[in-house]
Design goal:
14 helices, 5-stranded antiparallel beta sheet, 19 strands, 52% helix, alpha+beta, disordered C terminus
């Protein structure tokens, strides 16, 4: 079903729902975009805050280790034990003092100036006596200040990570300060350390990476294994997580690992999903409410529109008395009132038109009667005048009496025909000889034709017959003869040809007069169109053609062939074509072809113009 076929109610509801859906979709997209940005920004801020908290905490631990080491390096007992150079004395003294000063989960090492471990206490783990400590040699560049950093130890497939603080212990000699020993304090970076960081920084996840493996992580082993390939590539693009990367550097400043502070996006995604559900629910509620309100309002608006539609249908059925109930004073109410006024105006105009049509019909009927009665009355008048004013021979008197009789009989036939029209009856048609009808019409105009020297060339066979109303067809031919006689004031001839053409009889009427002017060619068969006739009403050809139409035929004019004239030029006369059906079938619509005689010439060769 196309949109144009929908009712106005649906044409209102469908665009309303589409517009609301589009508006909510755009609004939801904007809200979702802003929420996503805000959520990601919040998570990012939390991750950065966790990183800052981690740095503060890690710095605090390093400072605490450094402070303890600084205290130990300045204690007289420690310095005295270190001066002895005895490893056992150094270990005993350092262990006793470390156990009293440090409560950290850390380790404490004493090394000589070359980095060889002399004593080991606390959670030393991977560091043992006589182990070599490269970080001590790396820290010599910063002596006599403390140095701190991360230390990587172990094989590539089993790397351990430590945070250490290196503190040198000097003694005075005549030559200046002499490095006596080096104190190394630190932490192992393990799950406990990572969990401590997580608990202390608001729940962020911590993942330590060193070498080609994840050293420790606060994430579950499955999640850690899933994201490990990205972490080892130093990528922070981790699905469902936002990561902040912090490099871990050793005492010399070289990078020995990475710390990823990871913040889960699950909460943000859950809030976003909840927001989407709320937007969809709100859209559904708003859409239902809007459609319901629109439906109620549209129904109220459509009620007078439907009433106007019914009224228009009644007017189309010519029921101009249909009344519209005007219930409102808004635009539709005013429209209904205007429509009501329009209907009233149409009723009045229709009544006035009917009245004028009746007057026009009476006028046309009277004009037709005057046109048809004028010739027979003129014949009666002329004959009676001659009989009264002259002593005529008996033969002439009888001829005049016949003419008066024939004219009066014609008047009687016309009046009877008029009476039949008024009563709605018809005199009916009869099978008539076309030649007899033409001859009878010529006899009525023969005196005028003889007076002007006009002859009739009748080429119609005696057996050419068709059903017709004889009196009306006689007047058709008589009207053509009268027009031709009126046009040929200096004499001439009228030629009539007729032949069968299928189910029709075609009649060609041609004269040698001046022809039809171009100004009249297109209006020739319209009522009251005349030219060159002092007393003409312009109804003869219009009534003649109507007679042919009433018989189921037609009548039209054509250009007559050129002929020689005395002044040396060439000119064609008037040429009319008449089509009469052999079986009468009256028609009520226009079928004439005013300039289509060429087709007739092709169909009826015997009626062609002479070459």
């Amino acid at each position: 079903m196309t949109f144009s076929r929908l009712s106005l109610l649906w044409k209102i509801l469908i665009p309303t729902s589409l517009v609301m859906t589009l508006a909510f979709a755009i609004t939801g997209w904007l809200v979702q975009r802003d929420v996503v940005r805000a959520s990601y920004a919040s998570v990012e801020d939390e991750a950065k805050a966790s990183f800052q908290a981690y740095e503060s905490l890690w710095r605090e631990r390093a400072n605490r280790l450094g402070a303890i080491s600084e205290i130990l390096s300045t204690m007289s007992d420690v310095r005295a034990a270190l001066k002895t150079g005895d490893a056992a004395t150094i270990r005993d003294t350092a262990g006793e003092l470390w156990s009293r000063l440090s409560k950290e989960d850390a380790f404490f090492l004493v090394a000589d100036g070359q980095g060889r471990v002399v004593a080991s206490h606390g959670q030393a783990g991977s560091f043992a006596l006589n182990d070599d400590l490269p970080m001590v040699r790396a820290a010599r560049a910063q002596f006599p200040n403390q140095a701190s950093g991360f230390v990587q130890k172990g094989q590539p497939d089993h790397t351990e990570l430590f945070q250490v603080v290196v503190t040198p212990v000097y003694v005075q000699s005549p030559a200046g300060p002499v490095l006596l020993n080096v104190l190394v304090a630190g932490y192992r970076v393990d799950a406990a350390v990572a969990q401590t960081l997580k608990d202390s920084t608001g729940g962020s996840e911590y993942v330590f990476v060193s070498g080609n493996r994840v050293v420790t992580s606060t994430l579950t082993p499955a999640i850690t294994a899933a994201i490990a390939p990205r972490l080892l590539m130093n990528s922070t693009d981790i699905p469902d997580y936002l990561a902040v990367l912090n490099p871990l550097r050793d005492i010399s400043g070289a990078q020995v690992g990475q710390l990823f502070i990871v913040r889960s996006l699950a909460g943000a995604r859950q809030r976003l999903a909840a927001l989407r559900r709320e937007i969809v629910a709100l859209w559904l509620l708003a859409l239902v409410a809007a459609l319901l309100i629109t439906y109620l309002v549209a129904r109220k608006i459509m009620r007078p529109v439907a009433e106007l539609d019914r009224a228009a249908a009644e007017i189309a059925r010519q029921n101009y008395d249909y009344q519209i109930d005007v219930r409102s004073q808004d635009e539709l109410g005013r429209l209904a009132g205007t429509f009501q006024s329009m209907c009233q105006s149409i009723r009045q105009a229709r009544e006035e038109l009917i009245r004028r049509e009746r007057i026009s019909t009476i006028g046309q009927l009277a004009t037709s009667i005057v046109h048809d009665l004028r010739n027979p009355l003129a014949a009666i008048y002329a004959g009676a005048e001659m009989m009264m004013d002259s002593d005529l021979p008996a033969e002439m008197s009888r001829r005049l009496a016949r003419n008066i009789y024939r004219a009066s009989r014609g008047i009687q036939d016309m009046l009877q025909e008029l009476l039949d029209v008024v009563r709605g009856t018809s005199s009916g048609s009869e099978l008539c000889s076309l030649r007899e009808v033409i001859s009878a019409a010529w006899n009525t105009v023969a005196p005028s034709a003889d007076a002007r020297g006009i002859a009739l060339d009748l080429k119609v066979e005696d057996d050419l017959e068709c059903p017709m109303e004889r009196a009306r067809m006689e007047r058709v031919f008589a009207n053509l003869f009268e027009n031709a006689i009126e046009a040929m004031r200096s004499g001439g001839s009228i030629s009539i040809q007729g032949e069968k053409a299928g189910d029709n009889i075609m009649v060609r009427v041609e004269d040698t007069g001046p022809g039809i002017s171009a100004a009249l060619q297109g209006r020739l068969f319209q009522p009251f169109v005349t030219e060159g006739k002092k007393n003409g009403l312009g109804l003869g050809l219009a009534l003649s053609r109507q007679t042919l139409l009433d018989h189921g035929g037609d009548m039209w004019a054509d250009d007559a062939p050129d002929r020689d004239v005395p002044d040396g030029g060439q000119k064609g006369g008037a040429l009319f074509w008449l089509r009469l059906p052999k079986n009468r079938a009256p028609i009520t619509h226009e079928t004439a072809v005013l300039n289509g005689a060429a087709d007739i010439h092709e169909q009826f060769p015997s009626l062609r113009r002479p070459e």
